[in-house]
Amino acid sequence: MKSRYSFGGDEHIFVECDEAMSLEAFFKSLSVTNAVKKARIKGVTEICPANASYQIKFNPDVIKPADMLKELKAIERDASKGKHTLKTRIIEIPVLYNDPWTHETLMRFRERHQDPKSTDIEYTARINNLDGVDGFIKAHSGAPWFVSMVGFVAGLPFLYQMVDRQRQIQSPKYLRPRTDTPKLTVGHGGCFGCIYSVRGAGGYQMFGITPMPIYDPNQKIKYLRDFMCLFKPGDIVKWKPIDRAEYDETVAAVDKGKFTPKMRDVSFSLDEFRKDMDGYNAKLMGALNGR
Amino acid sequence: MAVNVVKPGLSTTVQDLGRPGYYHIGIPLSGGMDRFALRCANLLVGNKEDAAVLEAVFMGPELKFTEDATVAVTGAELPPKVDGEPKPLWTSFKVKKGQTLSFDFLKKGARAYIAVSGGIDVPVVLGSRSTYTLGALGGFKGRKLEAGDKLPTGKGRAAKEGRTIPEKLRRGPSAPAELRMVPGLYWHRITTEAGKHFFADTWKVAPEADRIGYRFRGGKALEFVPREQPFGAGSDPSNIVDACYPYGSIQVPGGTEPIVLHRDAVSGGGYFMVGTVISADMDLIGQLQPHSQARFVEVTVAQALKARKDRARLLDKIRDIL
Predict the structure, then answer these.
(1) Is the bond preceding B176 in cis, omega lying within 30 degrees of 0?
(2) Residue-range domains of chain A with CATH
(3) Range of the domain at B247
(4) What is the per-residue pLDDT for A291?
(5) Binding-face residues of B in 226-245 toward A, CB within 8 A
(6) pLDDT for res B26
(7) Contact: A217, B182; criterion CB under 8 Å
(8) Residue A87: phi, psi to the nearest 5?
(9) Would you say residue B213 lies in a domain?
(10) Are A233 and B248 an interchain contact pair (Cβ–Cβ within 8 Å)?
């Protein structure tokens, strides 16, 4: 895995850790950007890790692009020697799969879909050889997911499924993007899952909806008072399938300020994870559920 | 002190020089699309250069003042009037308590900057007063202005009437606009032939042109270098594993219509990019109207830095005059 560096005009350096997505590429992006943060280089204004790449924005009046490039290459040399471990947290996200709101929306945009005769879940289940809607929900919510990038719009997490490549759910984006997606839709495009933080355009398949807000610009929601976006790259997410009754209860609890997300601090080791993915995930679940 | 919005215009928002530091979680810089014009408007009325102003797109608002103030309008040629009486552009003028500031039809450019002495004093959110409408963040209630809004203004020493920026120091779009860009990012994805006509073709601004990005059409579709798509990228040859998007980066979904991301950029996504418009030419994009023509011009990073320096010198000259 050799990084490719490119100038993004006179204010950015763009670094592709790998062309293909993998947890190794993501860890490289995260460890280098963490090291850049620590280095406190004068003139750096934005440090953005992404799935398998990262980007630094800087003020070229303070640091010349060529010098910035030198700094980054030196940091990458040191950072890639580091261990693949991460102090992070695991967060449980309740999901109402096959909900009425994304269903209404996907029906409205059916002619933009690969398979107008199925729903997004039915189609994705079929092309991934899963046993219908139930088999899909089991596969989707069975293992945890890594937040490998936050962005597109405010607070939107991109999620990477923590299973081996053969078991990762893959699904194309809509043939033409929709002009509407309900807020808090749980979506999927390529190998990435996501949660739409705001209502708007989108091209990902729509599987369900969470009652748990992840972005609050007014910072009125209890768990978003410290910061308006919930997710950070490196967070681990576990989906929890819920029914309509629990969905409604959770929405009401959020409104009353009584909902607290289930969240635990954990440390993650990529090397340990690679040795036994299912066993490692079971340990993470144990930490989440306080066992 | 306050300014009351009688008519909001088409899309008028509160903007300053933006909100750096949150792009890694998808919150863009925001701020005036034409930062040069925004700074000039503030300098003319005696504000700090980074004070919040109004950015009006294509059409001016109608504003009633509840106190005396000094005002300046820069950027697009959107002629201001006070109680119907025409006032000059790029020049400070007085608006008295009870008077109404309105605008004539747009003559040139796309975005006018309206500075009021004391600045528009909406709450500072994450270090800036700029509006990010997609995230309903900052500005006046996180949205564009509506009739009936009361905009608070700050206390500030109002500058004199008649301070002006000489015409030769003003900047606006030429036709066709030349957008200088540094090729890179995923430039290697297109063929040499496609790279040639990308620069040779004349492009036209599409109606889908806003603070997030400007779409261009009319050039030949770009041909891709064949490859097996990497894992996670998606099947279209214009797809990449979702990555960060630089401000000014030029993505070409499907290889057909280039989109230049601007101050309210989406921070990342899965489309390849052919390069990045240089920082000195970003202001110019904010002044392009739909259907106007533009060409992309290849430059090096060194040339981009030179253009940036020229731009800074121009602003220094204006600071010296005022």
Answers:
(1) yes
(2) 4-81 (3.30.1360.40), 87-288 (2.40.100.10)
(3) 177-314
(4) 67
(5) 230-235, 239-244
(6) 96
(7) no
(8) -90, 120
(9) yes
(10) no
Measured CA angle at A196 (ends B17, B11), to 5 deg? 40
- Which tokens belong to A118? 């199925």
Show which of B113, B134, B168 is a domain's final residue: B168
Whether B154 and B256 map to the same domain: the answer is no
Q: For residue A79, what pLDDT band results from cuts at 50, 70 and 90?
A: confident
Distance separating alpha carbons of residues B92 and B116, to the nearest angstrom: 10
Alpha helix (H) ranges present in chain A?
23-39, 65-79, 100-108, 120-127, 132-142, 244-255, 270-275, 277-288
Among B21, B242, B278, select the one facing A51 at the smallest CB separation: B242
Q: How many domains does chain B have?
A: 2
- Give pLDDT tens digits for B201-247: 999 999 989 999 999 999 999 999 999 999 998 888 999 999 999 99
pLDDT at A64 over 70: yes
Nearest to B31 by CA among B113, B150, B123: B113
Radius of gyration in angstroms for the set of CA atoms belonging to chain A, rounded to a whole number: 20
The two three-digit tokens of residue B158, written as one number = 């109002």
Do B186 and B300 lie in one domain? The reply is yes
Q: Specify the amino acid at residue A79.
A: A
CB contact under 8 A, A190 and B26: no
3-state secondary structure string across chain B: CEEEEEECCCCEEEECCCCCCCHHHCCCCCCCCCHHHHHHHHHHHCCCCCCCEEEEECCCCEEEECCCEEEEEEEEECCEEECCEECCCCECEEECCCCEEEECCCCEEEEEEEEECCCECCCCECCECCCEHHHCECCECCECCCCCCEEEECCCCCCCCCCECCHHHCCCCCCCEEEEEEECCCHHHECHHHHHHHHHCCEEEEEEECCCEEEEECCCCCCECCCCCCCCCCCCCCEEEEEECCCCEEECHHHCCCEEECCCCCCEEEECEEEEECHHHHHHHCCCCCCCEEEEEECCHHHHHHHHHHHHHHHHHHHHHC
Same domain, yes or no: B104 and B163: yes
Looking at beta carbons, which residues of chain A come within 8 Å of B249?
8-9
